[in-house]
Amino acid sequence: MNDRFTRFGGVRYAAVPLSLAALVGCRGEQPRRPNIIVMITDDHTAQAMSCYGSLLVETPNLDRLAREGMLFENCYVPNAISGPSRACILTGKYSHTNGFTDNSQTFDGDQQTFPKLLHEAGYQTAMIGKWHLNSDPQGFDFWSILIGQGEYYSPQFIENGERKVEKGYVTDIITDKAIDFLERRDPSRPFAMLYYHKAPHRNWMPAQRHLGINDDRVFPEPANLLDDYATRGRAAREQAMEIGRDMWPEWDLKLLGPEELSQSWELEESGDANRDDVKRANDRHAAIMQFQAAYNRMTPEEQARWNEAFAPRIAEWRRIKDKLSPEELVRWKYQQYMKDYCAVIKGVDENVGRLLDYLEQIGELDNTIIVYTSDQGFFLGEHGWFDKRFMYEECQRTPLLVRYPKVVAAGSRSRALAMNIDLAPTFVEMAGLGVPDDMQGRSLVPVLTSGGQAPDDWRTGVYYHYYEYPSWHSVKRHYGIRTADYKLIHFYNDVDEWELYDMQADPQEMHNVYDDPAYAAVRADLHRQLKALQQECGDKDPDERETEFFKGAATL
Ligand code: SGN
Ligand code: CA
Q1: Are 277 and 515 in contact (CB under 8 A)?
Q2: Which of 22-36, 461-475, 518-532 has the lowest mean pLDDT?
Q3: What confidence tier does 270 reach under pLDDT thresholds 50, 70, 90?
């Protein structure tokens, strides 16, 4: 037993309220507090989970979580981008409250988080995998985090402050570390482990054993793969996340043979770097260099297997690339994208299965609240896109599965409007602690214990606010509200445009009806609800905020 985990033995546990004692189960007189495992994948969207009805990939181990637990059909993130979403989960607060609004920020780790609260209450805590908050984790007995985005092969970690490189494939290694932490824990106390994968983040590099597994598959295309953005505004038109135009053949689709990989590539340093052709060449060279760096992390044996697996795709590309129409190019790239993305998901699913088996083996499976979610959803060709950031459904919505057979009915589904800021208060409550007043999410305990029903006073709309612009993929700043039936979005900053979608009639968000007179009453009501939500959570229309700021400055 590693004594790192025993030195907290003297911490006094908070009293467990009676009702919760029943909830967490009892061992004689002594209430037994549940273990908690939070599984977060990066960019894993519900369209690629068979329990959500996906036809793209089979995810038997995730399906098992759904079959033995609860599947949330409507869980949303407040800000669909990695660091901010992770900060929301940790704090139970919106981005404007926890201060981490975009990926360039540094998380203020001194603030309250749920792992800290659990740790103070005697839990053994661990954080393993993609952290992405630019400051060291706090509140953990053990942490081993990827650096920034992390790497698929031979990834670098910072482990309790020390840098190390691990041989192998990232999803397997994160699971090995998770099992190792559980192996070394003090079994007399509960644990809370954050098990955070890099997969399936761009550039979707599969494990060796999954190379080529989808070669013969033809993936169904989304109906709006060739969207022309009619009725949508400048934000949808001016983004930079189109599969046809913005997905790099070299980096994203791995279309580099061994001879190109061994060449040296450089960026053009001339004063003409803004000229279109120079810029295009530089973008391509940057993509190649980025891929070379990832490829060079593999062992010679891994590289050989990789080259063998991608040789047919590269040969096909060389044969067809100058003959494809723009539409054919989108379709071809989409197929390669899905082959890789779904192969990477296989690695996640297998490793989730491995961890579940281990928990079963040590007799802790049913004593553990297991949550599976992603930092946000992702576009798998819908609107012609990859990436996320938009408040459109594919990425605002995130998968959420919860398994805890003591109180969660097997195979239950919830339509409640849930949010990832609800997780922190849920964990705190399930550990028998009082939920701090300043957490903005709401505990999901009543939903989990009632077969998925939301209480009468549950939220009727979810709030969203995205800030990272100008930046990667050029998605304009926006905020808005999603209710059970509608979505209202305001794009601001360098535009001032509103969009309104009827989610029942138009679930793919193809028809912006903001100016349609038939929706005038709905529109007015949504504006009212959005304002009320902003007031409630302490956010504002940024233009109003600016006006007030200047008003304040004028009176100084
Ligand atoms: C990288 C990716 C982007 C992605 C961001 C943020 N580019 O910059 O495509 O949107 O991460 O992703 S890449 O060329 O490095 O792959 S997030 O999930 O961390 O928010
Ligand atoms: Ca992400």
Answers
A1: no
A2: 22-36
A3: low
Average pLDDT score over residue span 525-533: 98
DSSP 371-405: EEEESS---SSGGGB-S--SSSHHHHB--EEEE-T
CA 555 remoteness from chain centre: 43
User: Which pLDDT does position 546 carry in this prediction?
Assistant: 56
Contacts of 318 (CB under 8 A, 6+ apart): none
Looking from the CA of 466 toward its CB, the CA atoms found within 13 Å total 31
Distance in angstroms (rounded) separating the CA atoms of residues 310 and 291: 14
DSSP 8-state symbol, 35: E
- Residue pLDDT, tens place only, 458-517: 999 999 999 999 999 999 999 999 999 999 999 999 999 999 999 999 999 999 999 999
Are 182 and 362 in contact by the 8 Å Cβ rule? The answer is yes
Residue 72 in contact with residue 51, Cβ under 8 Å?
A: no
Q: What is the mean pLDDT of residues 398-411?
A: 98
At 148, the pLDDT band (50, 70, 90 cuts) reads: very high
391: how many CB neighbours lie within 10 A of its CB? 29
- Predicted confidence at residue 554, as pLDDT, reads 38
Among residues 33, 25, 46, 24, the alpha carbon closest in space to that of 372 is found at 46
CB atoms within 10 A of CB 321: 12
Q: Per-residue DSSP letters for 242-275?
A: BHHHHS-TTTTS----HHHHHS------STTTTS
Taking the CA of residue 203 as reference, the ligand 1 atom at the shortest distance is 16
Q: Is the shortest distance between the CB of 207 and ligand 1 below 6 Å? A: no
Q: Is 100 helix (H, G, I), strand (E, B) or coil?
A: coil
The pLDDT of residue 12:
30
Using CB atoms within 10 Å of the CB of residue 91, give its burial: 0 to 12 exposed, 13 to 18 middle, 19+ buried: buried
The residue-averaged pLDDT of 392-403 equals 98
Tell me how far apart the alpha carbons of residues 333 and 335 are, in angstroms, rounded to a whole number.
5
- Asked if residue 509 has its Cβ within 6 Å of ligand 1, the reply is no
Asked if the model's pLDDT at residue 115 lies above 50, the reply is: yes
Q: Which two tokens stand for residue 359?
A: 């928990």
**Residue 524 CA to its chain's centroid (Å):** 32
% the chain with pLDDT above 90: 87
**Contact between residue 156 and residue 146 where contact means Cβ atoms under 8 Å apart:** yes
- Residue 479: per-residue pLDDT: 98
- Distance, in Å, from the CA atom of 408 to the CA atom of 351, rounded to the nearest integer, reads 23
Per the document, the length of the chain is 556
Does position 224 have pLDDT exceeding 50, yes or no? yes
Full DSSP string of 146-193: ESTT--SBS-EEEETTEEEE--SBHHHHHHHHHHHHHHHS-TTS-EEE
State the chain's maximal CA–CA distance in angstroms.
Answer: 76
- Residue to mutate (ligand 1; options 100, 202, 375; most atoms within 8 A of CB): 202
The CA 388 to ligand 1 mean position distance, Å, reads 10
Is there an atom of ligand 1 within 6 Å of 472 CB? yes
Is the distance from the beta carbon of residue 473 to the nearest atom of ligand 1 less than 6 Å?
A: yes
